[in-house]
Write a structure and sequence with these properties.
Layout: H1 5-12, E1 15-20, E2 23-28, H2 38-46, E3 49-53, H3 65-81, E4 86-92, E5 99-107, H4 114-123, E6 128-133, E7 136-141, E8 147-152, H5 153-156
Length: 160
């Protein structure tokens, strides 16, 4: 396993939220979840794959907020250039004392941008990303060599 055990524990215990239709929806790690819209539910559960990644704090080196925001703007530019559909997302500690902005990338048939997304994670020096395959949220190292299942979202998310 790349990285420290403590860092992987943080990844696996993170709260993950997605900004959709002018509201934030928690998809994992929240004490209280409100139902998400059916279209978001379908994107998360029925898509061929989805990925949550950020450009913040390369290899967990804490940068100033303005540097992180610039890195995320560059990542967003890459997503636009690659024509990958995405929504704003954020990951945080469950106590909300730490958070990072990022993006939820949706893979719709016939597109499966898995290689592109993992390439972006490596480009922005990320140790890990989240992926959703078959409705199951997983955390994967940026090389794709380690994948840890976290939660079955098809059961955890309630659709409106």
């Amino acid at each position: 396993m790349e990285g420290s055990t403590d860092l992987w524990r943080v990844y696996l215990e993170a709260k993950i939220e997605v900004f959709y239709e002018e509201s934030w929806y928690c998809i994992s790690g929240c004490a209280i979840k409100r139902p998400c819209p059916k279209t978001l539910y379908d994107d998360l559960v029925s898509c061929s794959a989805a990925f949550i990644l950020t450009a913040w704090n390369p290899y967990s080196v804490v940068l100033e907020d303005h540097e992180n925001e610039q890195r995320n703007q560059a990542l967003e530019g890459d997503l636009v250039e690659l024509r990958l559909p995405y929504y704003p997302a954020r990951g945080s500690s469950r106590s909300d004392n730490y958070s990072e902005s990022g993006f939820l990338v949706i893979a719709r048939e016939p597109l499966n941008p898995s290689d592109l997304v993992f390439d972006l994670a490596r480009k922005y020096d990320q140790a890990a990303i989240y992926e959703i395959v078959g409705g199951v949220l997983r955390c994967a190292d940026a090389n794709g060599s380690l994948v840890v299942e976290m939660e079955d979202l098809s059961e955890a998310l309630l659709s409106l």
